Amino acid sequence: MDKSQVMEVRVKGWKILEASIRLLMNNIGAAFRVSVVPGLMILALSIALIAGVYALTGGTPEPVAEPGVVPVALVVFVIYAALFASVAVSWHRHVLLAEPVGWLPALRRRRIGAYALRVILLVVLLLAIGFLVMTPIFLITGASDGAGVLTVILGLVALLFLNIAAWRFSTALPGAALDRGEGFGAAWTATQGEWPAMLILVVGFGLISFLCGLIGGLLAIVPVLGMIANLAINWFLGMLGLSILTTLYGHYIEKRPLV
User: Fold this and answer.
1) pLDDT at 206 over 70
2) Phi, psi angles (nearest 5°) of residue 59
3) Taking the alpha carbons of 34, 35, 36, 42 in that order, is the dihedral positive or negative?
4) What is the Cα–Cα distance from 244 to 59, expressed in whole angstroms?
5) What is the pLDDT, as a whole number, of residue 49?
């Protein structure tokens, strides 16, 4: 890949981010409809979970050792995953298939289950890659005197690599919502040679997340306003992330132009 091609791919990274933001803004009503009810359910479940933990611990932050905690935690995790997957499936299908959406999410059990399973597999895959990448770094830096700076540099490089790999593999996620066969291998192949674009995407999304977090932290000084602002920020970042996945799938898998 020559310099002009690298520059073109870098520009594509900004185009992907720009197209994803525009996608979300142009479909903001649909974004609310697919996410508000599941989001309220997640919020209610979180409040109930916190209240339950406080009831078990007597208001102290000590770990809960009750026998029924692990099964309850697993059930809560499954519910969280299903609610998130329902939002993702509805959003991907609305954008890529032009399916209408209402305030109540469509219960596509197979698609939701397939999406949640693919997310879990992605997490396992990234953990395995992270272990393979970080182990040599720890071995190298651990055997060197005064390796603090080297550890930081290698750690940042590894973190960037893992984030780029995450976006590349995540390109396969919308395929589960559409009931299509493209898996992680197809996503990796489709994004081959696109690491400069993914690097720009990682940096750009990271900057947006940092700025949103900074705004949320400043507004947190005002209790009620801060809570509302942080809920809105988390919603925006979540939907933007799903919009980026939709854009990646549409462009790299379906070969759609970036508009």
Assistant:
1) yes
2) 85, 5
3) positive
4) 40
5) 78
Q: How far apart are CA 83 and CA 34, in angstroms?
A: 11
Q: What is the mean pLDDT of the chain?
A: 86
pTM of the complete model beyond 0.85: yes
The helix-helix angle for 148-170 and 223-248 (nearest 10°) equals 60
Q: How many CA atoms are closer than 13 Å to the CA of 168, on its beta-carbon side?
A: 23
- Of the candidates 177, 178, 198, 176, the one whose C-alpha atom is nearest the C-alpha of residue 252 is 198
> Over the stretch 55-79, which tens digit does the pLDDT of each residue have?
666 655 555 555 566 677 778 888 8
Residue in this structure with the two tokens 């698609």, named with its chain if needed: 111
